[in-house]
Amino acid sequence: MGDNVIEFFDDLGRKISQAGQSAVQKTKEMTDIVKLNSSIADEEKKIRNSYVEIGKLYVSLHGEEHEPDFDKLMADVHEAEEKINDYRKQIGNIKGIVKCEKCGADVPANSSYCNSCGAAMPVTETPEASAQEVTPDVQAEETGESEE
Q1: What confidence tens digit (pLDDT) does each residue in 49-65 have?
Q2: Contact status, residue 117 vs residue 105, Cβ threshold 8 Å
Q3: Total count of domains within the chain
């Protein structure tokens, strides 16, 4: 009976050792797969970035003189650019900033001259200024009073 117990524990030891080696092998395989998937993702990112650069280069080289296949995409780009410019103007209005037409610098809306290049800034009427310029006649009409 003593030999059976020793044989049992020897067999159990071999099975545990094999299971451990199998687990180590599976862990190594999984690590290798994760590394390879990461490398694939990096290469796919390079490809996407290259496509973006190809597109930007195409637009800069061909602009309005592109092939008909690009009509929709070019229209989408122009539409998005116009929206971005409009959103930036809205942000500037909220911040009280306008763009200098000459150099593109941010200038406070009430400035007469650009702080960067010195160009004269166009006079723009702000909503606050137009509200303050209400004449007595208009003010009387708004309140229902008359000057008689």
Answers
A1: 999 999 999 999 988 89
A2: yes
A3: 1
Distance CA 28, CA 22 (A): 10
Q: Is residue 111 part of a domain?
A: no
In a domain, 34, yes or no: yes
Full domain range(s) for residue 33? 1-62
* pLDDT digit string, tens, across residues 93-121: 999 999 899 998 999 988 999 999 999 99
In a domain, 25, yes or no: yes
Structure tokens at 37: 């998937």
User: Does the predicted TM-score (pTM) go above 0.85?
Assistant: no
Q: Is 95 helix (H, G, I), strand (E, B) or coil?
A: helix
Q: Rounded to the nearest 5 degrees, what angle is found at the Cα of 33, between the Cα atoms of 49 and 39?
A: 20
